[in-house]
Amino acid sequence: MRVSVLKKRIPGPGTNRVGTCLRVVSAMVITAAAMFMFAVPAFAAVPQILNVFPVTGPVGTPVVIAGTGFGAETEYSAVMFNGVGAEVTTWQNNVISVTVPEGATTGPVTVINADGVSNGVEFTVTETPQADTTWYLAEGSTAWGFETYILMQNITDIDATVNVTYNTEQYGRIPRPQALNVPPNSRVTFLVNDDISNVDVSTELDSSQPIVCERSMYWNGRIDGHDSIGVTDAANDWYLAEGYTDNGFETWVLVQNPNQQLAATVNVTYMTSNGTIEKAPFQVGAGQRYTINVAEDVGACEVSTMVESDLAVICERSMYWDGRRGGHETIGVTQPGKDWYLAEGSTAWGFDTWLLLQNPGDAEATVNVTYMTPEGPLEQPAFEMEPNSRHTVHVNDYVVNSDTSIGVTGSEDLIAERAMYWNNGTGRAGHNTRGLTGLSDTVYLAEGSTAWGFETFVCMQNPNDEIARVQVTYNINDGAVDGGEWIIQPNSRVTINVNQQLPNYDTSVKLESDVPIAAERAMYWSTRGGGHDSIGWSP
Questions:
Q1: What is the pLDDT of residue 178?
Q2: Alpha carbon of residue 19 to chain centroid
Q3: Which of 21, 105, 251, 491 could disulfide-pair with 377, CB 3.0 to 4.6 Å?
Q4: Cα dist. 253→281, 359, 406 in Å?
Q5: How far from the centroid of its chain's Cα atoms is residue 287's Cα?
Q6: What angle do CA 448, 518, 204 make, to 5 degrees?
Q7: What is the pTM of this model?
């Protein structure tokens, strides 16, 4: 099944990336139902239903009815679900779109017009799954040449039913007609482009069982891509340490409002290399997503961002460079902290690694950085950060030809991110993620693949003064696979090359450690012409 939003193509990025929305030609077209439609006289007599799609679902499910003789919609027109009238979305002579009404029970769907009542087609009304976990993903696009994938990892022994809602920039809230199933201890991937085309989109996923969700995006023939874990809670305040609008870099801030009734009023403060800049307040409509082109607000500079909203929202930031040869992306941070952990990082293998720090407070901060290499820790001299400022550290200046995790400690609350760049001869690629403010003995990584030309690495950071013993489990489409036990020395980092353990699989990863650790997953493709990275998620 494919749900398509059809509209006139809008050329080129403008304000909020898509510019002024043109007239929607058709809200939703369901291809599966269209197979059953054919030309009939405009005013056939008694209606006849040929197909109902789907034939099962909870209250609120969009349903398409294909048939003949429906005629034009009049005061006598109705669609009944076992005797309960449904709200009609569209009514044409041979196709009707409705939603399953409140109070509907299992029984026949019928169409009524002035000439009579149609045959009945059985529809099974199911219970609406109660969400055990809700995930939000603010970034996403099926326009501008982007592919957007959602990766779902079921961390339980029970099938998970997942309902998906898209918060679009152009058209507001669009529920996915059918729920998705994720089998126990497995991973499922779906391509958002197959559901909804040519839109900028945030995603909300409500699952009947605990799951972990990530979103990956690719563009320009997969020359590069980016990925991020989602978040399980909206918040009023968000912080984004990285940002750059000079030397060919684009920086975009994405704001998702999952509220179904109210618009959110949002204030943005930029902490730039040229000082603090306030953006005029703006609104994000109910069930919508809003995109900020940061360069339009700050000009050419290094920039950190603080987002404050009167309603709980979700924020991410994406960056592109060199004509979108490369790009990276991360979720924001909702709470600054004094301690930060970044499991990935390397100054070997041609990598350039940068540590990005944001001090959003009104007091000067003293900052200590420790690099945790496979050979042990490298502690650095402390430095100061001015209030409401941003600071950049080029890690290659301090760590030579080594993989490294990073630990950051501040006298005041900070935000930390890490960006990495490289060039395999086809142009500059890169990936980025926010850090972690806490450690965990259980970490989940929803994305991962050793098929389709991908390399996948799991980076584990042990900032403790004792050895960490980590049990690795891979969740493939068919279930769980044992990845063995791994030892991480104190204040050091270990990398797992997943391709060597589990070749030619799409896989999520579960890490269980006897002492709390931090973990990330990095992926590369096209002989490392592209790559992305994300932190893990912990319960």
A1: 86
A2: 22
A3: 491
A4: 14, 19, 25
A5: 16
A6: 55
A7: 0.78
Pairing between β-strand 389-394 and β-strand 455-462 as defined by DSSP bridges: unpaired
Q: Does the CA dihedral 67-69-70-72 come out positive or negative?
A: positive
- In whole angstroms, what is the distance from residue 155 CA to residue 324 CA? 35
pLDDT at residue number 60? 79
pLDDT for the residue numbered 10: 25
CA dist., res. 316 & res. 271, Å (int): 17
Three-state secondary-structure class, residue 303: strand
Low-confidence ranges of the chain (pLDDT < 70): 1-44, 128-131
CA distance 255 to 293: 12
3-class DSSP assignment, residue 509: strand
Distance CA 142, CA 217 (A): 9
Enter the tokens of residue 336: 């600054």
8 Å CB contact between 538 and 440: yes
Tokens 């079921």, located at residue: 154
pLDDT tens-digit series, residues 73-108: 999 999 999 999 999 989 999 999 998 999 999 999
Instruction: Answer yes or no: are the C-beta atoms of 434 and 356 closer than 8 Å.
Output: no
DSSP 21: P
What secondary structure, in 3-state letters, does 438-459 show? CCEEEEEECCCECCCCCEEEEE
Beta-carbon contacts of residue 228 (< 8 Å; ≥ 6 apart): 137, 139, 214, 215, 316, 329, 330, 331, 433, 534
Q: What is the DSSP letter of 396?
A: G
Residue that has been written with the tokens 């920086």 in this structure: 251
Which H or E element spans position 195?
A: none
Q: Fill in the amino acid letter for 44.
A: A
Task: Report the alpha-carbon distance of residue 183 to residue 178 in Å, rounded.
Answer: 16
Task: Confirm if 138 and 200 have CB atoms less than 8 A apart.
Answer: no
pLDDT at 498: 98
Q: State how far the Cα of 72 lies from the Cα of 78, in Å rounded to an integer.
A: 11
Peptide bond into 54 cis (omega under 30): yes
pLDDT of residue 57: 81
The full length of the chain comes to 539
> Which residues, including other chains, have CB under 8 Å from residue 119's CB and lie 6 or more apart?
48, 49, 110
Query: Do the beta carbons of residue 206 and residue 150 sit within 8 Å?
Result: no
Residue ranges with strand state E in 92-146: 95-99, 107-113, 116-117, 121-125, 133-137
